Amino acid sequence: xxxxxxxxxxxxxxxxxxxxxxxxxxxxxxxxxxxxxxxxxxxxxxxxxxxxxxxxxxxxxxxxxxxxxxxxxxxxxxxxxxxxxxxxxxxxxxxxxxxxxxxxxxxxxxxxxxxxxxxxxxxxxxxxxxxxxxxxxxxxxxxxxxxxxxxxxxxxxxxxxxxxxxxxxxxxxxxxxxxxxxxxxxxxxxxxxxxxxx
Length: 198
What we know:
The protein is α+β, with helices and mostly antiparallel strands. Helices cover about 30% and strands about 15% of the residues. The chain is built from two helices and five strands. Strand 4 (about 170-175) and strand 5 form a beta hairpin.
């Protein structure tokens, strides 16, 4: 074995003045794209959290308003047992109004609410609060009851011997608020209730 000649490779290198830093530019662009994607994902997450919180507050407000409706229906069942009790719907009581005149019930003039029932801030000093307070809300739900008159169409033949057997109709409007010291979420619900009276 004769001595081998070492193998030399000729490696040519560019002079440093000609190098442009392409790897650095590509890395910075990739980093910028990743940052934009990360910020966008964070904004989406924050927006989804706000939407979930708002939905929860609206559900709490809806449940509070439903509790007020049930309380008003219980009030009607408990306090209205005869036609004479309809005289209380004169507007002098904070939650009882009348959209109809009922001479037999002692309602001689309509008494509509003096406040805007679609404005939540007007409800803070009007309406009746529910009898059992809810611990899940800071502002207790409220309701008003309006007497609408008799439900249904009158009989085609007027009889002086048989009394009108149509039930009396009531409209209940209630509002509930969400949680917090100054809740912005509110829900206004309305139901109709019929009650036969002697």
